[in-house]
């Protein structure tokens, strides 16, 4: 890449980062699972009603330790996008995530979640099946966990649909990831009744990794190569691996109660 | 015969609460303003004398549509005379994102509603049982969840936990406070964590959903009650009906996301009419007394 382009990508507008966060070639949960973890065993279904493919997860090893890893799955290519509902979970997806996390608690496995969603699915059946209730139960449950939870915002993290798998001890964000109360489009629609002002919204929302680090929401920023993570995924996997190892080993010396207390404190002070 | 609600209002000797409740009535936007004698129903359009609305606790005397009531007015209907005590009054709106025109908007609303935030926290007694009651007020930026709202709700939960008394939250919210961005979102985690701790300690939480309860409030403390009640006809959901309609590109069924619909789909214990609100709560509270 030319030096000019490198310089340019160092100083992106928030609206441009939004586009990078949604780049179709950006590494997704399934890529992280394949390249950062080993021995992955996928667990499907909420075991109540349905299998929601917008949440992907299971058990794996990270540097030898068994962990539970899960996250939003957008899918690649139109067919898979549709099967994964573009990464917008229904209540069944959140209940599946909760089921996996309950097992992590039972078997004392650290939990690693990857956040990348436009939001929870605003659909008719999703409402009938209790979208709000499913998200709320996850928030309450995650706050009670005695195993470390690390959330990595890898793409876009929007609304309660992102938070529902993101009540973590540590929140990491990739350099070009965004995390916000709502998509910039939705935000502009609500405040100004004009979704085309999304770029402007992105500016005032403070949704970039840097903004959120300053706000104390994001604990660590994982660097991407200039131009975005899709330009060199291998470099990104190495960075993610490095950050995870550092944090997980730090939590190994803490008692289950301390781990929970650590998470409670983080949210109590926001 | 005098209506039971009227008697209740008369019973309240608490001057502070009564005064606030007076300025809280439907139709009066300013604390000091001479209200007109008639109020028209927003649904059926028919008018009735203010005193008749009051007798019906602001449920339309003609068609039964539920009019919104202010937080203090509701507390006035609820508490035993002279037991109301406001909590965490000093907490005010913050502006964490330094959002354009937000402070001005809040100042304006403070003047109009006499409220400092979209929730009023209190403790008092209902049927002789001490409780913490938090009431959201949709007149203040649609009852949206701000950092201050999240903080007041969390402190209210912690007070109930500390004093070992039941907690009642009346929700009314359009969802997140856009002007506070991520800080608004994080209040969902904060309040849910507080409810979880309260629940682990054996606390009773009655969640009372009123029109409208949506977005981040639905997806956090409002749906974490041991007992979930709702006022008739209240809109309750996560996503708003317009967004859903645009997403799925078809018409929504009649009564979708209303209290009765949620009851049918298994998310509500009971729908409670406003005139029975106090009695129902006394029944539930006393069933949890040892």
TrEMBL record, chain A:
Pfam families the UniProt entry points to: ACCA
Superkingdom of source: Bacteria
Subcellular location: Cytoplasm
Positions in coiled-coil regions: none
Keywords, sorted A to Z: ATP-binding, Cytoplasm, Fatty acid biosynthesis, Fatty acid metabolism, Lipid biosynthesis, Lipid metabolism, Nucleotide-binding, Transferase
GO terms of biological process kind: fatty acid biosynthetic process; malonyl-CoA biosynthetic process
Pathway(s) it belongs to: Lipid metabolism; malonyl-CoA biosynthesis; malonyl-CoA from acetyl-CoA: step 1/1
Principal subcellular localization: cytoplasm
Entry's transmembrane regions: none
Gene Ontology molecular functions: acetyl-CoA carboxylase activity; ATP binding; carboxyl- or carbamoyltransferase activity
GO cellular component: acetyl-CoA carboxylase complex
Catalysed reaction equations from the record: N(6)-carboxybiotinyl-L-lysyl-[protein] + acetyl-CoA = N(6)-biotinyl-L-lysyl-[protein] + malonyl-CoA
Endpoints of the signal sequence: none
Listed EC numbers: 2.1.3.15
Cytoplasm keyword on record: yes
Protein function: Component of the acetyl coenzyme A carboxylase (ACC) complex. First, biotin carboxylase catalyzes the carboxylation of biotin on its carrier protein (BCCP) and then the CO(2) group is transferred by the carboxyltransferase to acetyl-CoA to form malonyl-CoA.
Family designation: Belongs to the AccA family.
Subunit field text: Acetyl-CoA carboxylase is a heterohexamer composed of biotin carboxyl carrier protein (AccB), biotin carboxylase (AccC) and two subunits each of ACCase subunit alpha (AccA) and ACCase subunit beta (AccD).
PANTHER family found in the cross-reference section: ACETYL-COENZYME A CARBOXYLASE CARBOXYL TRANSFERASE SUBUNIT ALPHA (PTHR42853), ACETYL-COENZYME A CARBOXYLASE CARBOXYL TRANSFERASE SUBUNIT ALPHA, CHLOROPLASTIC (PTHR42853:SF3)
Protein name: Acetyl-coenzyme A carboxylase carboxyl transferase subunit alpha
Record organism: Oribacterium asaccharolyticum ACB7
Automatic annotation (TrEMBL), chain B:
The record's free-text note on cofactor binding: Binds 1 zinc ion per subunit.
Biological process, per Gene Ontology: fatty acid biosynthetic process; malonyl-CoA biosynthetic process
Pfam families reported in the protein's UniProt record: Carboxyl_trans
Pathway(s) this gene product operates in, as recorded in its UniProt entry: Lipid metabolism; malonyl-CoA biosynthesis; malonyl-CoA from acetyl-CoA: step 1/1
Location of this chain's protein in the cell: Cytoplasm
UniProt-listed Enzyme Commission number(s): 2.1.3.15
Cofactor(s), names only, from the UniProt record: Zn(2+)
C4-type ZnF: 41-63
All residue ranges annotated as the CoA carboxyltransferase N-terminal domain in the record: 37-290
Keyword tags: ATP-binding, Cytoplasm, Fatty acid biosynthesis, Fatty acid metabolism, Lipid biosynthesis, Lipid metabolism, Metal-binding, Nucleotide-binding, Transferase, Zinc, Zinc-finger
Molecular function in Gene Ontology: acetyl-CoA carboxylase activity; ATP binding; carboxyl- or carbamoyltransferase activity; zinc ion binding
GO cellular component, one term: acetyl-CoA carboxylase complex
Subunit structure: Acetyl-CoA carboxylase is a heterohexamer composed of biotin carboxyl carrier protein (AccB), biotin carboxylase (AccC) and two subunits each of ACCase subunit alpha (AccA) and ACCase subunit beta (AccD).
NCBIfam families referenced in this protein's UniProt entry, alphabetically: accD
Name of this protein: Acetyl-coenzyme A carboxylase carboxyl transferase subunit beta
Protein species of origin: Oribacterium asaccharolyticum ACB7
Gene label: accD
């Amino acid at each position: 890449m030319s030096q000019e382009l490198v310089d340019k990508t160092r100083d992106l507008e928030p609206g441009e980062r939004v586009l990078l966060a949604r780049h179709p070639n950006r590494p997704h949960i399934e890529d992280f699972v394949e390249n950062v973890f080993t021995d992955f065993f996928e667990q499907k279904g909420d075991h109540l009603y349905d299998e929601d493919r917008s949440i992907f997860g299971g058990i794996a090893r990270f540097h030898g330790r068994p962990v539970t890893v899960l996250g939003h799955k957008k899918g690649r290519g139109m067919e898979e996008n549709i099967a994964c509902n573009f990464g917008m979970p229904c209540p069944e997806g959140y209940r599946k995530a909760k089921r996996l996390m309950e097992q992590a608690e039972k078997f004392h496995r650290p939990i690693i979640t990857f956040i990348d969603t436009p939001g929870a699915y605003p659909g008719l059946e999703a409402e009938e099946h209790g979208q709000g209730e499913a998200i709320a139960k996850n928030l309450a449950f995650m706050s009670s966990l005695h195993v470390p939870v690390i959330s990595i915002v890898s793409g876009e993290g929007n609304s309660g649909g992102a938070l529902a798998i993101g009540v973590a001890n540590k929140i990491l964000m990739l350099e070009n990831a965004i995390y916000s109360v709502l998509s910039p489009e939705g935000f502009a629609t609500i405040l100004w009744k004009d979704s085309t002002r999304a770029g402007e919204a992105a500016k005032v929302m403070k949704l970039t990794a840097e903004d959120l680090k300053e706000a104390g929401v994001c604990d660590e920023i994982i660097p991407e190569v200039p131009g975005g993570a899709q330009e060199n995924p291998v470099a990104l996997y190495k960075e993610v691996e490095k950050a995870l190892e550092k944090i997980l080993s730090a939590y190994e010396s803490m008692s289950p109660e301390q781990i929970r207390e650590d998470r409670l404190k983080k949210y109590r002070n926001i | 015969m005098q209506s039971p609600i009227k008697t209740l209002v008369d019973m309240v000797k608490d001057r502070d609460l009564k005064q606030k409740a007076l300025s809280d009535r439907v139709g009066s936007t300013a604390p000091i303003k001479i209200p007109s004698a008639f109020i028209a129903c927003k649904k059926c359009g028919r008018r009735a004398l203010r005193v008749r609305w009051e007798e019906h606790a602001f449920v339309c005397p003609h068609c039964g549509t539920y009019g919104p009531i202010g937080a203090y007015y509701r507390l006035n209907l609820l508490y035993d005379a002279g037991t109301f005590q406001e909590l965490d009054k000093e907490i005010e709106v913050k502006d964490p994102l330094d959002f354009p025109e937000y402070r001005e908007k809040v100042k304006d609303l403070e003047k109009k509603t006499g409220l400092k935030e979209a929730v009023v926290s209190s403790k008092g007694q209902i049927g002789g049982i001490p409780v913490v009651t938090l009431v959201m007020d949709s007149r203040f930026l649609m009852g949206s969840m701000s950092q201050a709202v999240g903080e007041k709700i969390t402190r209210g939960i912690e007070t109930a936990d500390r004093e070992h008394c039941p907690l009642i939250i009346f929700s009314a919210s359009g969802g997140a406070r856009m002007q506070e961005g991520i800080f608004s979102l994080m209040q969902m985690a904060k309040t849910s964590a507080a409810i979880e701790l309260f629940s682990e300690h054996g606390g009773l939480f009655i969640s009372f959903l009123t029109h409208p309860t949506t977005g981040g409030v639905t997806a956090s403390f409002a749906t974490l009650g041991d007992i979930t009640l709702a006022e008739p006809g209240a809109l309750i959901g996560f996503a708003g009906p317009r967004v859903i309609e645009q997403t799925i590109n078809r018409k929504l069924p009649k009564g979708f996301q209303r209290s009765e619909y949620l009851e049918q789909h298994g998310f509500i214990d009971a729908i409670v009419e406003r005139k029975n609100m106090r009695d129902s709560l006394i029944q539930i509270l006393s069933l949890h007394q040892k």
